[in-house]
Structures are given as structure tokens and as C-alpha cells.
Amino acid sequence: MRLPAPLRLGVVTRREKRFLSWGALQDGREIEAHCPNPGAMTSCWSPGGEAIFTEHDDPRRKLRFTWQAARVGGAWVIVNTQLPNRLVEEALTGPGVPGIDGARHLRREVVSPLGEGRFDHLVELGGAPMFVEVKGASWLASPGVCAFPDAKTERGARHLHTLTQLVEAGHKALILFVICRDDAEAVRPAQEVDPRFADALRRAYDAGVGLLALRTRLDAEAGEWSLVGPGAVIL
Predict the structure, then answer these.
(1) Please, what are the averages of pLDDT over each run of 10 residues along the chain (235 residues)?
(2) Co-location of 198 and 98 in the same domain
(3) Is the pTM of this model over 0.85?
(4) What CATH number does the domain containing 65 carry?
(5) How far apart are CA 223 and CA 2, in angstroms?
(6) Residue 169 needs a FRET pair 20 to 30 A away by CA distance; which of 33, 52, 64, 234 works?
């Protein structure tokens, strides 16, 4: 997928109140930018590090710029938490997703048939429907391994509980972790940050919920973010 255009290269200097960031563009402009990431963003950026912003001319927007990606230790990291789901949707409706070859996209934003919860996608795989929930993992907790989440997520734990109930009721379900940085190939639950989510993920797996991680790569010059293959989920 292509990052939203037009892109502006620069550096990011600080981030405050979760959704605000500041930086400087290559053309010398100092900017305030929307930070579309409610998490802690641990290991995802450093003051003065390279960054990619999007510039918008919509007068209805409060901020003209949006922070999309940052470079840390030579690796590009997607910081916009809305992009992993878009990447997966483009793959499902186009060339396909590694690890679930042959899945056919049915619709997005699907309400659970059990009456509780909403999930990112419904696909058809092997002639049967499957609920898919996408999570973007960007915290590099150890070399090559991302941990999710980087902040407590009650919503994430609820998703897992509902997916577990769906599988126990005879449905198919999948948690799909998108690894949002070039220097990682695996993801694990962040027990040290959110033990409730970590425990719920293990229970979901034991119940039959599928787990899949996908590695990605960002071509910053072209503004192209792509899937490069399956990764590992470490429980």
C-alpha cells in the first residue's frame, strides 16, 4: 500500500498528550502534527530522528500534518495505528495475505453473531467464514521481537474473549499481528505491560483461535509499505 500523499520528510522532535507531535521538515518548516497513535510508542522514535509526515490542505482539519512513520536505529517504523488494518484489507482484496492463502474478503467492520463485539474483517477460507482481527505491533522489546501491546488495552482483551467464544460456538477466528517495523520478524504478548491481554491471548489460542504474524517493509523513498511474508508468534 502507498502511504497517504503528499509525503514530507523531516525529523520529529517531541510528542505530547499522545496525539500531538512536533518536528521540522527538510524545507526548513517547523510543524505541529497529529500523532495517530494512542500507545506508549516505546522504541518507535527518538527526538531528532528521521520521520515521514503527510501534509493536508483540508481547511476542516485542526492540524495540517500527520506523522506516519519514524526511523530508529536504521529501521523504519509505522507509527500510524490506522495503517496496519488498511494494509491487510488491501492484501485481502488484492494479492492475498501470506499464511491464509486463498482467503476471500467478504466485508469489513463485522458485528459478532453472538451480539457482542465488532471485528475488522470477515473472510471466507476453505468454504467457511472466518472473523479476523488486526493488531499492529511496533514495540521492539528484544532484538527481532515485538511485544504487543505497549500500553494496557481493555478493548483488546475483550476482542480476545469474544473471539474465543466464537470459536467455542463453532466459528473460525484469527488474530493477525502486523509487525510494523523493518527490524523484527516475531511478536509476543507483552505480559509485563498487560497480563490480562497476554493471558487472554493464550486462552484464545488454546481454544482454537488462529494466530498469525506478518513481516513488513517500508520503502520510504517510494512511500510504499508492503507485506514481505509470515513472521512468528511466540507464546
Answers:
(1) 92 93 95 95 96 89 94 96 96 93 93 84 94 97 97 92 95 97 97 97 97 97 94 97
(2) yes
(3) yes
(4) 2.40.50.580
(5) 6
(6) 234
